[in-house]
Amino acid sequence: MKRVPLHKALESLAWLEGTWRTENQGSGKYPTIKDFSYYDELSFMSLGQPMFNYTAQSFSNSDLKKPMHRETGFLKVNPGTNQVTLISAHNFGLTTIECGEITDKTINLNSTDITRTKEAKMPHVTQVRREFKLHDNCLEYVFYMATSNTPVLTEHLRAKYIKIVNYTAAKMQMKILQLHELLNVLAWLEGTWITDEPAVGTYPTIKPFNYYDEINITSIGQPLFNYIAQSWHPDSGTPMHRETGFLQILPGTNKVVLSLIDNIGLFTVEQGDLMGDDNNTIDLNSNNILTTDASVPSFPTLTQTRRVYKRNGDNLELVFYMATSKTPELTEHLRAKYRKVV
Q1: Can you give the residue ranges of the THAP4-like heme-binding domain (predicted)?
Q2: Are 219 and 325 in the same domain?
Q3: Phi (first) and psi of residue 228, to 5 degrees
Q4: What does residue 287 show for φ and ψ, rounded to 5 degrees?
Q5: What are the tens digits of pLDDT across the range 67-124?
Q6: How many CB atoms are located within 10 Å of the residue 342 CB?
Q7: Are residues 24 and 112 in the same domain?
Q8: d(CA 327, CA 301)
C-alpha cells in the first residue's frame, strides 16, 4: 500500500500524528469502582485521507502487561474549520461519537451519540467528554464519563504520554495471552489474510471496480477478536475503505457478533451464525446501522448489510451485500478471495 502525505485537512493536527505511550502510569478512578493504574498506548496514523486512524490500547500495571480496554476508530477534521469528530468502537460493546474543536494544541470532545450492542453490560455509559492537550512535548489526556448509576460527568482517566519516535525498537512488550476458550471454534480465522488477485466490487449505482484487501483478525487473550480490514487501489496503491472493530461469539451459542466503524462514518452491528460441519462459514446480517455526523454526505444511506465468510481449503472467501436508500434490495457489492499470511 502506498504511503501518502498527510491530508491538508489534518495540517492543524500534524503534531498529533504518531504513537504515544504513557510516560509513567495513567490513573483511573470513579465513584463506583476502586482506583487503579494502567499503561496506555495511543496511535494516530495517517494514510493520506482526511482523518487519522485511531487506536488506544491499555494494559494492566503489573509485569504481565495484561491487555485491558481497547478502542479503535477515526479522528476526522471538517475541512476548512476547527471542528473535529472522533468515532470509536470499544471492546465492551460501546460505540461513541464525539464532536468538538481544535484550539491551538488542544482538542476538546463531547459525546453526541452513544450506541451499545445488546450484550453491553450495566451500568450503561450515557455521556463522555475527553481532552487532549500538547504541553512541553507531552500529550496530556483527561477522560470524563457519566453512567446510568452516576449521571453527572465525572473524571475517570488521567494520563500523560510521550511520543515514540522509533516505534519498532521501542514497541511495548504486551503480554500476549492464549486464545480465549470462547474463540476456539474460530481459531482457524485468526491471523492476517490478503488478496493475491484483485477483488471485485459492483453495485447498480456505481461503476464496477477492483481493489486489494487485507484483513487482520488478532487475539490478545480476551473473549473477542480485534478486527481491521484495509483496502487499496490495485494500480495506484492509494488507501480506500477501512473498517475496524471487534468480532465475538456469544457465550454458550453459535452466534457471532461483528461491531464495526468505517472511514465513511458508519457504525454497523452484524449478527449471525457459525455454520457448517467444520464451523467454516460465518453468515452475518446487520441489526443496527448508525450514520454518524462524520458520514460522507454524497453516499446513499446504507439500510442493510450481509456478509458471508467461508473457509475453502487454505483460502477465505468473502461476499458482502448491501441495501441502500436507492437500492432497497440486498445486492452483492464485494467479492474477494484471501490467503493467510504465514
Answers
A1: 10-162, 183-340
A2: yes
A3: -140, 130
A4: -125, 0
A5: 899 999 999 998 889 999 999 999 998 899 999 999 999 999 999 999 888 777 889 9
A6: 6
A7: yes
A8: 10
